[in-house]
């Protein structure tokens, strides 16, 4: 864990060997934060090293599941429709629709500052800054009012997307097997996560956070999580009505307008992609 720019060993701090891995800490989420708060209140423990000397890895390298909200900002949905020559969609709430998610392979996760190798088969890899939420305890059929009680923390995600691999063009548009979500969303390194997990208590309202993305220091996305179509609470309620959410599962909550597909711009080797979310920090990766 990081406190005041110093890195501490979590298990040493709490005195619980089960906290030697984050997934162990979250598996005991009911008492884990209490243990940690008590340990911090008892006084400082020796730091392992200054943060400036640490190499950060993805805080959850292989989550049990990564659920990704699709088309969850109205402006992003509009730009993707425009790309395909379609008019903007009405608010899904007005149609009685619920939040919609796809799954990203857990092995697609990569580290802060890691180099991401662009897939050879794609010429149209895109960027997507997203607020990611980490589930802290099992959630099934959770009400919207209580949904955020199941979130232990937040981090930044880049939902890298191979746009030109998303469809099997040989099949007609109406064919239900035309879409290829695996190639589109789950290539190696397509889910940078980090730079750390900020406890939910430090974030407050997840629907009021600025988020931005730059490619080579050129601002591409600039929005606020308050512009989501379906809030995180709505997403957890919908997901938990279909599957049980488990500690360490991650929810990517959607991306705003400004993706490359809307501009006809895509990532190339050497590009540096930097993401920022308010109260969390910065996540950077280089393409190769």
Characterise this structure.
The structure is a single chain. By secondary structure, the chain is α+β, with helices and mostly antiparallel strands. The chain has 2 domains: 1-54, no CATH class; 56-287, Fumarylacetoacetate hydrolase, domain 2, CATH 3.90.850. The protein has 7 helices and 17 strands. The chain has helices at residues 10-14, 22-27, 32-41, 74-83, 181-185, 200-203, 232-242; strands at residues 2-3, 6-7, 49-50, 66-69, 101-104, 109-110, 115-116, 125-126, 129-135, 151-158, 161-162, 191-199, 210-215, 218-224, 250-252, 272-277, 281-287. The strands form 4 sheets. The chain has a 7-stranded mixed beta sheet. Strand 1 and strand 2 form a beta hairpin. The chain starts with a strand and ends with a strand.
CATH class of the largest domain: Alpha Beta
Query: Please, what is the CATH homologous superfamily of the largest domain?
Result: Fumarylacetoacetase-like, C-terminal domain
SS-based class: alpha+beta
In DSSP terms (H or I, runs of 4 or more residues), the helix count works out at 7
pLDDT < 50 runs, ≥5 residues: none
Trace the largest sheet across and list its strands. Answer: 5-4-15-9-10-12-6
Beta-strand percentage? Answer: 25-35%
CATH hierarchy: architecture of the largest domain? Alpha-Beta Complex
Secondary structure tally: strands: 17
Mean pLDDT: 93
Secondary structure: helix percent: 10-25%
Count up the domains: 2
Q: What is the makeup of the main sheet?
A: 7 strands, mixed
Query: Alpha-carbon distance between the termini?
Result: 30 Å
How large is the radius of gyration?
A: 19 Å
N-to-C series of helices and strands:
EEHHHEEHEEEEEEEHEHEEHEEE
CATH topology of the largest domain: Fumarylacetoacetate hydrolase, domain 2
Shape: globular
């Amino acid at each position: 864990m990081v406190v005041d720019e110093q890195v501490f060993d979590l298990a040493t701090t709490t005195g619980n060997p089960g906290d030697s891995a984050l997934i162990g800490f979250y598996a005991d989420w009911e008492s884990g934060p209490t243990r940690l708060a008590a340990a911090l209140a008892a006084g400082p423990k020796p730091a392992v090293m200054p943060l400036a000397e640490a190499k950060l890895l993805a805080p959850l390298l292989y989550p049990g599941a990564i659920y990704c909200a699709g088309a969850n900002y109205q402006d992003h949905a509009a730009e993707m429709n425009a790309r395909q020559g379609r008019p903007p969609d009405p608010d899904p709430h007005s149609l009685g629709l619920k939040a919609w998610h796809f799954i990203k392979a857990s092995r697609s996760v990569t580290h802060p500052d890691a180099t991401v190798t662009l897939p050879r088969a794609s010429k149209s890899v895109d960027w997507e800054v997203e607020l990611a939420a980490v589930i802290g305890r099992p959630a099934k059929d959770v009400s919207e009012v209580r949904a955020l009680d199941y979130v232990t923390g937040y981090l930044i995600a880049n939902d890298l997307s191979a746009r030109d691999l998303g469809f099997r063009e040989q099949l007609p548009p109406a064919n239900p097997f035309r879409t290829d979500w695996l190639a589109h969303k789950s290539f190696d390194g397509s889910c940078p996560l980090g730079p750390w997990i900020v406890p939910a208590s430090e974030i407050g309202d997840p629907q009021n956070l600025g988020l931005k993305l730059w490619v080579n220091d050129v601002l591409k996305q600039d929005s606020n999580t308050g512009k989501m179509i379906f809030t995180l609470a709505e997403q957890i309620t919908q997901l938990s009505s279909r599957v049980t959410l488990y500690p360490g599962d991650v929810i990517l909550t959607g991306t705003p307008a400004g993706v490359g597909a809307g501009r006809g711009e895509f990532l190339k080797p050497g590009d540096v992609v930097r993401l920022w979310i308010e109260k969390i920090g910065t996540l950077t990766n280089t393409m190769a």
